[in-house]
Specification:
The protein is α+β, with helices and mostly antiparallel strands and 227 residues long. Helix content is 20%, strand content 44%. Strands 1, 2, 3, 4, 5, 6, 7, 8, 9, 10, 11 and 12 form a twelve-stranded antiparallel sheet that branches.
């Protein structure tokens, strides 16, 4: 008896079946993406990077253009930034012009990861693709009456270091700060920060260069009394 050869239609069906089986096996073997950590976990992991850091002080150099009314004035200032755990910050500028003092006061009141969960209701995070990495994006609203309308935070998904902090204010003002980090001991502390500010009395752009950090040294309480 002659051997029957499969028809063309049968060959096609066999190929389709094999292809479907291959796709199904690959899909089953592919790991599902890990769920995003919640907002509280992200902020706490960022705060834990500073575990053991009780204080620091660091010299800063600020190059800025400040716009007041119709004038745009170049400003170069030096000063010292102070931190005392968990949430005390102060940026003291050396003899700043009067129109630039607001910048230092504003940067001194941004808060820290140690206290953001106490001060803000933060919604579920999203992920944003950046130039060469990804970042968690969190948005918070104040729990108590505040000049701040919303705060938006960007954290590195790899290190949980703070990359950006943006504030929108109830009067339409805004503050945007972007950080570049380096390792100081085991901590991710700023090397450079770029600032864009727009407030009713002034606006401006600034670059802050941070010098050598002094870690866990006593900081006089008086440096925080002005803020």
């Amino acid at each position: 008896m002659p051997i029957m050869q499969p028809g063309l239609a049968g060959l096609r069906m066999n190929r389709y079946a094999a292809l479907l089986l291959l796709v199904t096996c690959v899909a089953a073997a592919s790991p599902s993406p890990a769920p995003l950590p919640d907002a509280a976990t992200i902020v706490r992991r960022s705060a834990s990077a500073w575990q053991g850091l009780s204080s620091y002080q660091v010299p800063v150099t600020i190059s800025a253009h400040v716009r007041v009314a119709i004038l745009s004035l170049p400003v170069r200032m030096t000063g010292t930034q102070y931190y005392q755990a968990p949430n005390r910050q102060a940026l003291h500028l050396d003899n700043p012009p009067s129109f630039a003092r607001g910048l230092g006061d504003t940067l001194s009141t941004m808060g820290t990861p140690q206290t953001w969960l106490q001060d803000y209701t933060i919604v579920s995070p999203s992920i944003q693709q950046r130039k060469r990495h990804t970042a968690y994006v969190l948005t918070g609203t104040p729990k108590r009456p505040s000049r701040v309308k919303t705060m938006t935070l960007w954290f590195s998904t790899a290190t949980y270091a703070i990359e950006n902090v943006n504030f929108a204010y109830t009067n339409g003002a805004m503050l945007q700060v972007t950080f570049q980090h380096h390792h100081v001991s085991q901590y991710h502390l700023p090397l450079v920060a770029t600032v864009t500010a727009k407030f009713p009395s002034y606006s401006g752009d600034a670059t802050i260069a941070y010098g050598a950090y002094q870690l866990n040294q006593p900081v006089p309480a008086s440096v925080f009394s002005q803020h």
